[in-house]
From TrEMBL:
Signal peptide: none annotated. Pfam families: Lactamase_B. CDD domains: ComA-like_MBL-fold. The lineage of its organism: Bacteria, Bacillati, Bacillota, Bacilli, Bacillales. InterPro entries: ComA-like_MBL (IPR035681), Competence_DNA_uptake (IPR052159), Metallo-B-lactamas (IPR001279), RibonucZ/Hydroxyglut_hydro (IPR036866). It comes from the Bacteria. Gene3D superfamilies: Ribonuclease Z/Hydroxyacylglutathione hydrolase-like. Residues 48-262 form the Metallo-beta-lactamase domain. SMART domains: Lactamase_B (SM00849). This is MBL fold metallo-hydrolase.
């Protein structure tokens, strides 16, 4: 403002100066400098569902699931005129707030509504480069619509096989551990066929588990060996059918995150799961009590913070 109005003797020079400064400011806001030193992982509070956003030090964006409302039979007077959309109300605003304009990797661990229901609004507004999903064909109208939109918008879609691994950038690698396309469930339930992957950012290890149950945990334990993980995303919102003793002994996490809705009708997380985590001295964050959980990874170490501070 001073450069634009400050000197009547050299108005053109000052206006050129102000134009250059304004252009630089706009360019910086559109292409922020990441510094290549910090990665960020946030487990968003999406109620009874799963959603995580990972930003690598060089600015690549990974979205894992998108939350969603599980539907139950309702009478006409119980139906909302404008149903709540977690993608529109939570995930899209967060991505905008972070200055994200495209998604490099979208991981759909499986097709349940509480994992993909919020992604429709996201893929309509953000270009997606690569989609990784389990091998099951779309089973619901919600999933079929989402897949059509992704294809129409030019996203590549693949189902990674166990053992698939690559380096996303220096210091950032991931490996996919599950499911095996040759041994998928045939009963229509896809929880245990969720994508499971191990992400390593510098010294930090995160294990993402979708909704796998104990049979899938046993399969992974029998096939893979890896160092202790720093943070485990507890499978299936803390359901009693997951997070068994042998699984925790094998994974050896220091911390765990449970993505779960407050006062949900399923009783998640199950008391026995909480007791198992406590018996292994694993610190637990829960989105129903702690709100969103943000993890920042730097060369010197990693820290975590929660949105809410609720008395236990």
């Amino acid at each position: 403002m001073y450069a634009w109005t400050g000197n009547a003797l050299h108005p053109h020079r000052h206006r050129w100066c102000s134009a250059v400064l304004l252009t630089g400011l706009i360019c910086y806001s559109y292409h922020p400098f990441h510094g290549e030193t910090e990665a960020r992982i946030i487990f968003l509070d999406v109620g009874q569902g799963d959603c995580a956003v990972i930003e690598t030090p060089r600015g690549q964006v990974i979205v894992v699931d998108g939350g969603g409302m599980v539907s139950f039979p309702q009478k006409s007077w119980q139906r909302r005129q404008h149903p709540y959309d977690v993608g529109e109300k939570t995930l899209v605003p967060y991505l905008r707030y972070r200055g994200i304009r495209h998604i490099d990797y979208l991981i759909m661990t499986h097709g349940d509504t509480d994992h993909i229901g919020g992604l429709q609004k996201v893929v309509e507004q953000f270009p997606v480069r690569l989609v990784l999903r389990n091998p099951h064909p779309p089973r619901t109208a919600t999933e079929r619509k989402l897949m059509r939109t992704l294809i129409e918008h030019g996203a590549r879609i693949t189902a990674p096989s166990p053992g698939t691994a690559w380096t996303l950038e220096p210091g950032v690698t991931w490996q996919f551990l599950h499911p095996d396309p040759a041994h998928l469930s045939t009963d229509g339930r896809t929880n245990s066929d969720s994508i499971v992957f191990l992400l390593q950012i510098q010294h930090f290890r995160l294990l993402m588990t979708g909704d796998i149950e104990q049979e899938a945990e046993a399969d992974i334990v029998g096939k893979w060996r890896f160092p202790p993980v720093d943070v485990l995303k507890v499978a299936h919102h803390g359901s009693r059918t997951s997070t068994g003793e042998s699984w925790l002994a094998h994974v050896r996490p220091g911390f765990a995150v449970i993505s779960v809705g407050r006062h949900n009708r399923f009783g998640h997380p199950a008391p026995e799961v909480i007791r198992r985590l406590q018996s292994h001295r694993i610190h637990v964050w829960r989105t129903d009590r702690d709100g969103a959980v943000t993890i920042r990874i730097r060369p010197a170490g990693w820290t975590a913070e929660t949105t809410l501070s609720v008395a236990r």
